[in-house]
Amino acid sequence: MNAAISPSAPALIFGGARGMGAAIVRRLAAEGRPVAFTYVSAPERAATLVQAVETGGGAGLAIRADSADPEDVRLAVETAIERFGKPGVLVINAGILMSGAIDQFAMDDFDRMLAVNVRGVFAAIRYSAPHLLDGGRIVTIGSNTADRIGSPASSVYAMTKAAVAQLVRGAALDLAPRQITINNVQPGPVETDMTADLMAYIAPKLPLGRIGKPEEIADLVAWLTSPAAGYMTGASLTIDGGWTA
Ligand SMILES: NC(=O)c1ccc[n+]([C@@H]2O[C@H](COP(=O)([O-])OP(=O)(O)OC[C@H]3O[C@@H](n4cnc5c(N)ncnc54)[C@H](OP(=O)(O)O)[C@@H]3O)[C@@H](O)[C@H]2O)c1
After folding, report:
1. What is the pLDDT of residue 3?
2. Domain carrying residue 174
3. How many domains does the chain have?
4. Which residues, judged by CB distance below 6 Å to any ligand atom, belong to the binding site of ligand 1?
């Protein structure tokens, strides 16, 4: 039994206006999927991306939704379904990075990290899963720091991404009876706004001698949503240029 979803089944991306999320939106739209995506701080980039998707002959929808607010997440699922119908693909990319040593990290920042990077991921799965098409695909964007941290001031971020990896394992078991797969992509350094200030420090340390491109992460996400990946679920796949090898 391999209940693959249709290649034109809609996709919903949490955090799609820029960085890796935008590359994932463009990639899934180019494959022929209508793509709804959320944004919180970048309305202009969201509108420009919808325009680009439509110019390419696809269908796009930008929805303002703060992943830290579960009600926003629930409404985003509802809005996406109203426009495109039940999703076949769900990608949860929205995430934040706040750095700080363990003895200095502010409690409010800790709560914010959990709200976006952990509860936001849970809410997206919780509210989307009942509507996902059987045979559907869920992909979360974690981080290679879930396995090995490698630099100071990253404990809280790494903890949130380790939580995502474990959430995915358990969710895989719950969703398997419906042939829905869920996997976690764990990038290392990728060229986006999030890492703009860190690149000079990181680049020389990368075994492959370069930083990843958002499109390379989108390629892996696209593979995970393809029929070829039907037997993979509950996995965390690290893609980091050898950083944690
Ligand atoms: N870049 C890296 O080297 C790297 C490495 C490992 C893992 N990651 C992970 O990859 C994912 C994407 O990161 P990126 O590098 O593309 O970062 P980015 O350029 O900073 O983009 C962050 C994305 O998350 C969205 N987002 C942030 N807070 C949100 C909130 N409260 N509600 C809804 N959306 C929110 C942003 O939406 P707006 O555009 O509306 O602000 C944007 O789409 C994150 O989960 C990050 O932790 C990144």
Report:
1. 59
2. 11-239
3. 1
4. 15-21, 38-42, 66-68, 93-97, 116, 141, 143, 187, 189-190, 192-195
Answer yes or no: is 64 within a domain. yes
Distance 17 CA to ligand 1 centre (A): 9
Q: Tell me how far apart the alpha carbons of residues 44 and 202 are, in angstroms, rounded to a whole number.
A: 30
CATH code for the domain in which residue 152 is found: 3.40.50.720
In order along the chain (245 residues), what is the average pLDDT of each group of 10 residues?
Answer: 80 98 98 98 97 98 98 99 98 98 98 99 99 98 97 97 98 98 98 87 89 97 98 98 95
Residue 200 belongs to a domain: yes
User: Is 91 contained in some domain?
Assistant: yes
The encoded tokens of residue 71 equal 């009600």
Residue 245 lies in a domain: no
Per-residue model confidence (pLDDT) at position 133: 98
* Catalytic residue check, 39: no
Residue 6 near residue 88, CB atoms below 8 Å = yes
